[in-house]
């Protein structure tokens, strides 16, 4: 693998023309690094498709949380009863799923809201990820200070 600039890598065989210099480079694939600003980072996208095919009620709850969270702050405002109704699962399944996700560090929970770990999924820049990580770490504590 050879690197022409810090943001472009060239791999394998094929043809690519550098638009700035007119130089032709033989490659299989051109990979460019781009800033994440405005992109949604989803590390488990491929796994989610697999889990969807496998089925499972707990997965339906997890999928609903990811798909319906607020894109601004990575949270879903809902109750277990409402989540049960929306996912057509039992409240026990919802509670078990929430407990598993919390134990795995994928979510934080407070009364009436769930926040997804921004390392799992978020939309925005590196700065927004840092901001969301700070909010995630304090998310469940906010409930006890608001009472």
From TrEMBL:
Pfam families: RepL (PF05732). Gene3D superfamilies: Winged helix-like DNA-binding domain superfamily/Winged helix DNA-binding domain. It comes from the Bacteria. Residues 7-143 form the Plasmid replication protein RepL domain. InterPro entries: Plasmid_replication_RepL (IPR008813), WH-like_DNA-bd_sf (IPR036388), WH_DNA-bd_sf (IPR036390). Signal peptide: none annotated. One of its GO terms (biological process) is DNA replication. SUPFAM superfamilies: Winged helix' DNA-binding domain (SSF46785). This is Plasmid replication protein RepL domain-containing protein. It comes from Pediococcus stilesii.
């Amino acid at each position: 693998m050879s690197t022409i600039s810090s943001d472009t890598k060239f791999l394998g065989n094929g043809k690519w023309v550098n638009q700035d210099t007119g130089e032709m480079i033989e490659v299989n694939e051109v990979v460019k690094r781009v800033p994440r600003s405005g992109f949604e980072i989803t590390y488990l996208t491929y796994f989610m498709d697999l889990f969807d095919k496998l089925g499972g009620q707990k997965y339906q709850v997890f999928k609903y949380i990811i798909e319906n969270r607020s894109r601004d702050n990575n949270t879903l405002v809902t109750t277990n009863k409402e989540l049960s109704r929306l996912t057509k699962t039992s409240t026990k399944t919802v509670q078990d799923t929430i407990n598993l996700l919390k134990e795995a560090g994928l979510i934080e929970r407070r009364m009436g809201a769930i926040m997804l770990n921004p390392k799992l999924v978020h939309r925005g820049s590196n700065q927004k990820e840092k901001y969301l990580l700070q909010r995630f770490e304090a998310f469940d504590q906010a409930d006890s200070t608001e009472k």
